Amino acid sequence: MVAPWPFAQWGLDLLGPFVKRVGRVTHLVVGVDYFTNYGIKLQFTSVYHPESIGMVESINKCILEGIKPRLEHHKAKWADELNNVIWAYRTTSRTATGETPYHLAFSTEAVIPVQIGVPSFRATHFDEGRNGQLLRENLDLLAKVREEAQLRTLVYKQKLANFYNKRVRPRTFKVGDLVLRKAGLTGFETRFGKLAPNWEGPYAVADRGRSATSWCLYSPRR
Fold first, then answer.
1. Whether residue 133 sits in one domain with residue 77
2. N or C: which end of the chain has fewer CB within 10 A?
């Protein structure tokens, strides 16, 4: 999915469960702008059934990979490390856009702590008097930066699609064929956890669905 402009379309997901923190929070609500990939932490919640959607799921993976090495044996402190992980994500260049989410959102790169503690070109040549003017000049170029990032995203998505399509084996079914259905489509695995089977059935093919890749199924045992 590609948004027409920044903050026009959002992806929302629930990440968890985590070890209970103060306030009995176990899940994290994550919101991500589809255009800039700028992740926003919305709030903590204690819901039971987390569900994931689209692009947000890959960002959830980045959050988990960032939190786990910081915790070691103190798993309940995940909320304390969350801001550091999100900051790292926002200031890291993404493969799809070639830009950092922070840059696409605010037209300038964030000053990270290492640039202050260790002498860097940006910190050494900082001019407070001209800083406001330079930021306004960056805003004039922001539309072009976002347009180029969107084009790179489209090219990147096309490369992924081509790579995926090369590995897909076309399958055809006839009415009456017996098939298995992935258990995750019905939530069957949530009743038995990790020990649940990956597939359920068998089901029989009743008719073709509305699209070329969908089929209407029924249980022959009923």
1. yes
2. C
C-alpha distances out from residue 89 to 43, 86, 103, 106, 206, Å: 18, 5, 12, 15, 47
| Cβ(217)–Cβ(176) below 8 Å | no
- Beta carbons of 113 and 87 less than 8 angstroms apart: no
Together in a domain, 37 and 102: yes
DSSP labels for 26-62?
-EEEEEEETTT--EEEEEEE--S-----HHHHHHHHH
CB-CB neighbours of 103 under 10 Å = 23
Q: Are 117 and 212 members of one domain? A: no
Q: Do 38 and 74 share a domain, yes or no?
A: yes
pLDDT digit string (tens) for the chain, length 222 residues = 555 556 667 677 777 777 776 667 777 777 777 665 555 444 444 433 334 345 566 777 787 778 777 777 667 777 777 888 888 888 888 888 888 888 888 888 888 777 777 777 777 778 888 888 888 888 888 888 888 888 888 898 899 889 988 888 877 888 888 888 877 655 544 555 545 677 888 888 888 777 666 778 878 776
Domain count for the chain? 2
Instruction: Indicate whether 36 and 78 sit together in one domain.
Output: yes
Enclosing H/E stretch for 203: strand 199-208
Q: Are residues 161 and 102 in the same domain?
A: yes
Q: What is the DSSP letter of 187?
A: T
